[in-house]
Amino acid sequence: MSQGNGTTWAWLKTALVIAAGDGYGADEWRTEYGGPRTATSGYRTPEHNHSVGGAMDSRHMHGDALDLNNDSGTQTEWNNMFYAAQRANADYIESQTESKLDHVHADWRNH
Q: For position 1, what pLDDT does the model report?
């Protein structure tokens, strides 16, 4: 059965599956935030990335990027998620100009 990314498989780098406590990655991001988060985008096939208007070399296609939803839609929640991603040693975090207020994008391209 096909999932949201257009396939039944995903390519994930260590940063998206490593346990919290190792000093980086998606689970560390959740831990630094202090609670569960809703992931709105992880791995994307090139076809899916194109269909959602993703960047030509989106880190989602490399398996090291994650978008987390701003569930409340508030500036405070967005800021808290942004700073938690910094503490989780993300290599790149989109600015609010890039991601808008609805989510925070982080990736661990150098891990």
A: 36
